[in-house]
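Researcher: Re-running this chain for the archive, since the previous output was lost when a drive failed. Same request as before.
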Amino acid sequence: MAAAWLDTPPPPIAGMARASDGDSLRLGDERVRILDIDAPELAQNCTETNGRVWSCGKAARDRMAALLASGIVDCRPEGKDQYGRLLARCVVGGRDIGATMVSEGLAVSYGGYAREEAAARKARLGIWGGDFDAPKAWRDDHPRPQGIMNWLSGFGV
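Model: Regenerated structure tokens:
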């Protein structure tokens, strides 16, 4: 019985939200990471087939911001990650945010949105329209700053 209580997911949350990046948001005081997607990092660039470099990380964040601005965000958390963020599936205006980001080629799928990713790849949308490093590989090659800057980033600085 204790194990079942400990595994109970956090309660749903809803309200107006703001984008932190292409796969996470702030809803009130809560930091939320969208489940089953990974978007390019804010400082990450991608390359189109013609060689033009574009800021795919900022484009993902801007699209997330536009989605969030369209109405009340409803999130169903399933747990927390190692940074204390809620891991959740979220919808706004009846649209699944993770599915939208992946289907528009602004995030990769990690299990939950394979069909949307396949369609975006086929249509060469967003990051699939050229070359890019997978967000995890990019993070591995560009470690986060340590010390005071890392601490301040927890406050949205």
